[in-house]
Amino acid sequence: MAESADDRLRLLIERIERLEEEKKGIADDIRDVYLEAKAVGYDPKIMRQIVRLRKMKPDDRSEQDMLLETYKNALGMA
């Protein structure tokens, strides 16, 4: 017997709700790791930047670095 559209929708919504709960749990775990790092003297703000940079492709990261240097030079910050 085929499930109705209402049942299918309900199941999809329930899956999304479960995944949202898992996502919240993972976000809490990540926050705890940053708090642990801060407690031993690391700077969580810098760690977040490093994580973001490590996700980037090397070429994209190099391009961003070049643009940042160009902007800093233009503003007399170098």
TrEMBL record:
**Which residues belong to any copy of the GapR-like DNA-binding domain?**
5-76
Keyword Lyase set for record: no
Q: Name one GO molecular function term.
A: DNA binding
Kindly give the Pfam families that the UniProt entry links to this protein.
GapR_DNA-bd (PF10073)
Coiled-coil portions? 2-36
Q: Which domain of life is it from?
A: Bacteria
Would I find Coiled coil among this entry's keywords? yes
Q: What is this protein called?
A: GapR-like DNA-binding domain-containing protein
Species source reads: Erythrobacter neustonensis
